[in-house]
Amino acid sequence: MNVNLIDQSRKLSSVASKLRQNFELWNYREVLLPAMEAAEPELDKGTKFSDGENFYLIKPDITSQILTKLEDGKEYKLFYLSEVLNGGTSGDWQFGVEYVGGNSRFMIVEILNGIITALESLGIREFFVDIGSRKVWENITEEIPEVREKVFNALHHRSFDLIDEVELPEAKLEEIWQLFNYRGQNPEYDRLNSILRTVDDERIFADFGTVRGLPYYDDLTFEIYSPEVGAPLGGGGEYSFGEADSCGFAFHLTNLLEIYSDNGKEDRRKISGESEEDFRRARRLVEKGIPVEVDQCK
Amino acid sequence: MQIVLPRGRMLDDSLELLRQAVPNIRIEDNRKLVQENGEHDLLLAKPADVPVYLEEGAEVGITGRDVVRETDPDVFIPISLPFGQCRLSVGRLEEDPTPPEEMDGYRIATEYPKVAERYFESLGTSVEIIEVSGSTELAPKAGIADALVDIVQTGNTLAANGLEEASIIMESSALLLVNRIAQKTKFDRINKIVFSIREVIEDEPEKIRR
Q: CA-to-CA distance for B175 and B66, rounded, in angstroms?
């Protein structure tokens, strides 16, 4: 964002505006958060600093920040736009959504639908969402809890070395191997299968090799990507807030911008701006929600 | 596909591995930074930059475990490779016998600030990290640092500069890296390369220098 900041901001703002509109249509409300928080163990990422007495975090991970503001037992459907700092002065602009306290199946179905309409509103149609499951891996390692951590670690890095290090019977290794490489739309996991059937979009897949690193995910996690960009467009998953099931995700806007094409065409009414009447006319149009451009006559 | 190889000490072994594992790959000897090669483009980058290329879209790369530990990139690391063996160590002036756990207040020159910071934190030692980008051995001799954290292969470079190895932080060797999105979008092509490399390593490890 340092180079051509104004031009980048215009594109970023254009994307953010469409994403806002999309999730407002799905009945989510924007949450505005402070840029700085007192450092707490519940907050992830952000840039730490101290004033000599206390420690603070600037622009931490938003999900963890939002969760410190919510009340138990309530349902929340929220979205946000923020930069998350990586420990220094640079960071990642994110647009994220959090649905807290709903029915777990309903929440992920609605969020996946929201992702589809969001990307399509940006003119992005060539994308995929791959959904993985932590529970599937917990089940397959149920009888071998001593190697579970190693298996998760191997998955996270897709490491054959780590899988080779796990001492397991051949049949179990084969089972893990099959799951490791499963990507399709008819998984042998009823819950995920039912979600895929309900969302019913050819771009949504079950992929048990999809594992996300953040510690708070419970079961399903997903990654949004496009063959046109070498880094994820976004990702998220299911987590718990107190007793409440929750689901959230974030788009990485820098990656989205790589394939977002702002055609620059605006249907804006031009007004000359020569007389007082011109401004009265412009005001009447704006009151009706019609975009205007008043020409500064020289 | 873009394959990013590390310039420097791991380049020859990386090239030899690719020659054996990837059919029809032609590698010129002129060390051009970009070599277009039919379906593959070879990019030669500084080892520390290889993960950056992988995170930004290059499909496959090779770099050291030391670099991966420092940068913690969001990439897949399917296999370790049998070359590039070295260690990341704390070095000190030969005339200074202070062990790392007693280096409180020392200025530590390094190209690996995060690994160095974590290591000294684990010892409960408070040091000042001075980030340099090469010729780390110079810093203690020039008096801008009291010790260093750097790659050591034989110890000869340290000795030649009046330094000695005080402790080993980690052992390192080369790793194969794969872009996370490419693993999904080019699943079969990536797997073909990864499995061919695995086969070469398992069948004929002696052909790849260590």
A: 10
Q: Using one digit for the tens of pLDDT, what is the confidence trace for B59-73? A: 999 999 999 999 999
Instruction: Give the least confident one: A185-194, A261-270, B86-95.
Output: A261-270
Amino acid occupying residue B133: S
Which residue type occupies A131?
A: I
- Joined together, the tokens standing for residue B60 give 């496959």
pLDDT at A98 over 60: yes
User: What DSSP string runs through B126-188?
Assistant: --EEEE-SS-TTHHHHHTS-SEEEEEESSSHHHHHTTEEEEEEEEEE-EEEEE-HHHHHHTHH
Of A130, A157, A159, the CB nearest to B184: A130
Q: Contact A222/A115 with Cβ under 8 angstroms?
A: no
At A39-54, the pLDDT tens digits run 888 877 778 888 888 8
DSSP element (H, E) containing A194: helix A190-199
Alpha carbons within 13 A on the beta-carbon side of A160: 17
Mean pLDDT over A21-27 rounds to: 96
Amino acid identity at B43: L
Query: Which chain B residues contact residue A254 at CB under 8 A?
Result: none
At A96, is the pLDDT very low, low, confident or very high (cuts 50, 70, 90)? very high
User: What gap in Å lies between CA A251 and CA A73, rounded to an integer?
Assistant: 27
- CB pairs A-B closer than 8 Å: 49
Least confident of A178-182, B57-61, B177-181: A178-182
- A250 burial (CB, 10 Å; 0-12 / 13-18 / 19+) is buried
Q: How many CA atoms lie within 13 A of B29 on its CB side?
A: 0
Sign, CA dihedral B59-B60-B63-B68, equals positive
Residue B191: burial class (beta carbons within 10 Å; 0-12, 13-18, 19+)? middle
ipTM surpasses 0.90: no
State the DSSP string of A25-46: HTT-EE----SEEE--TT--SS
Segment 156-185 of chain B within 8 Å of chain A by CB: 178-185
